[in-house]
Design brief:
Among the domains are: about 60 residues, no CATH class; about 70 residues. It is mainly α.
Length: about 200
């Protein structure tokens, strides 16, 4: 029986299925639990994941999905080694940090504080007319969204921006997203000029 919760634990198991208690065996003494009366055992990473999954259904769902994609399809965390569990923890921690980093930039405004003014981006009239022409002809798979590309195109000289638009026009049948194509093209042109973006 589990000394922590009292549940029946089969002899072949080293972790309680209900509370995650880990039975540490004392190899030098020839068996036994190796624990003093009332002393808690050390939980192995697999047992810890199992215990945490009981506390958080979302973590359990994440573990099951991760095991199906990256593991052997077995969802019992005690069947995996410490290295695999460490990879899962690194992966989920990275997702949490990335999510928090995104939210950190969106802090609430204090009393009397104004939101930062939106940057106005201006592009040359010839560039805007070329975009309007490309959109009106209807040869593009999707229209060019001026808001999506204005900041990128504004970094270029007028001739270079028109060159990028002409390249788009020439390859329009092969391009699924003209906005992404233009942003990438601007980056290529800036790198060719030695300008960091």
């Amino acid at each position: 029986d589990c000394p922590e919760c009292g549940s029946l634990v089969f002899a072949g198991r080293d972790t309680c299925f209900k509370c995650g208690w880990y039975f540490e065996e004392d190899k030098s003494a020839g068996g036994g639990s190796g624990l003093a009366e009332g002393e808690k055992g050390i939980v192995k990473p697999g047992g810890a994941i199992k215990l945490l999954a009981k506390l958080s259904p979302t973590l359990k769902k994440a573990w099951v999905a991760y095991s199906k994609v990256y593991g052997e399809g077995v969802t019992d965390p005690t069947k995996y080694g410490d290295e695999y569990i460490a990879e899962f923890l690194e992966y989920t921690s990275g997702l949490v940090i990335a999510d928090l980093d995104k939210k950190a930039g969106k802090r609430p405004l204090g009393d009397g504080e104004q939101p930062p003014a939106k940057k106005k981006v201006t592009i040359k009239k010839a560039v805007a007319e070329k975009i309007e022409k490309l959109n009106s002809v209807g040869g593009l798979v999707a229209p060019i969204n001026l808001r999506a590309v204005a900041a990128s195109l504004a970094k270029l000289e007028e001739s270079a921006a028109l060159e990028a638009l002409s390249l788009l026009e020439d390859q329009q049948d092969d391009i699924d997203d003209p906005n992404e194509f233009l942003r990438n093209q601007v980056q290529v042109l800036l790198e060719a000029e030695g300008i960091e973006t």
